[in-house]
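Morning, I've got a small favour to ask if you have a moment. I owe you a coffee for this, so here goes:
>
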Amino acid sequence: MTTIGFVRHGVTAWNKEGRAQGSTDVPLDEEGIQMAKRAAQRMQFEEWDVIYTSPLIRAKKTAEIIAENHSGVDFIQDKRLGEIGGGLIEGTTEDERIAKWGLDWRNQDIGFEPEDDIISRGMSFIEEVKQKHLGKRVLVVSHGGFISRLLYALVPNGEFSRDIGNTSVSIVELNDQGNSCHLFNCMKHLEVKEV
């Protein structure tokens, strides 16, 4: 059995403004850095064999902060863990999208990364992890849209929200008899007042 912990990156200015980020490389803001520190504090006594991260700076910085408490653990960037490509909507708010493309903007061909491509790259990563890290604990720092879709692919009967909170932790056990999600979207570390 291989255990995968998924962590969404800390908050960014674009998150707060409701701007679609997608593959745009938006950094954490100060609150996002503090959130990542709280996640790191939460995980400091957990054992992880390897940490994988999206190369996008908001995820990579979150992963680097968490990795500070896990010296000697391999730290690997993998572009397959990047956020879903948002095409023309990247950098826009909901109001701007409605003004430009109308209420049904989600159903238009405006350059979204195809769903099949998202799942394909995610499952390619998972299969590689299962081969390289069988029986290990693997931490993955990535993005909300990507994590939610991968969770549905890994645990098809799971009842998950598409809304993945910043620095939330979800844990999946990969098993030949069927995968299971033991923790979903947990943000208890954000209740901590000081880091």
The chain has a mean pLDDT of 95. The two ends are 33 Å apart (CA to CA). Residues 38 and 92 are 29 Å apart (CA to CA).
